[in-house]
Structure formats: structure tokens, C-alpha cells
Here is the input.
Amino acid sequence: MNSPEQFVLLVNAVILGFAYLVVYPRFAGRDQTRLAINDLIANGCALLVVGVSYAGTGQHFDLLLGEFGWFGFTLATFLLMEIPLFLWYARRYRIFDREEDEGG
Here is the structure.
């Protein structure tokens, strides 16, 4: 890896890709509660992997808004990377369609 930022982005991308393409369709489907729980687990996995690598090192990570520690950078980039994936997933699995839930 050329930089710590690239490592964190790669970890986030791998976890999010696996989550949205494999885990969420199998274990959450359209259930918003299960999706939220699985998402917390995925986010925790990303924080665990990055934390094991950078906790206690004093490493700073550059983001457009300034410098962050490993926790803030991982959380912020995870959430920013997740937005387009969530929008795709919500449309694909019709998470917010009320018509089907109400039977009409």
C-alpha cells in the first residue's frame, strides 16, 4: 500500500462489496432491522481491521475536511462509500416500497 488512506479505503471497499453483494441479500433481504444490524456488524469489522493496524500509532489520515485519526477516517469513509451502495440496494430490493407491504 502506498498510503494508510489507501489501506483504509481498500478495507472499506472489500467489506462493503462483500456485505452488499453476499451478506445483505442472504440475511437481510427487505427487512430494515436486519439490514441495520448487519450494517453495524460490517462497520465494526472495518473498524476492527483498521484499529488493529493503526490504533496507538498516532497516524493521521488526510480527508478533504482536515486530518482525522484512524477511527474517524474509517467511519467517515465507510459511510460515504456506503451511500451509493445503499441507494442501489434499496432500489433493487424495494426496501421502501409501501405498496407491496400494504398489499396493493
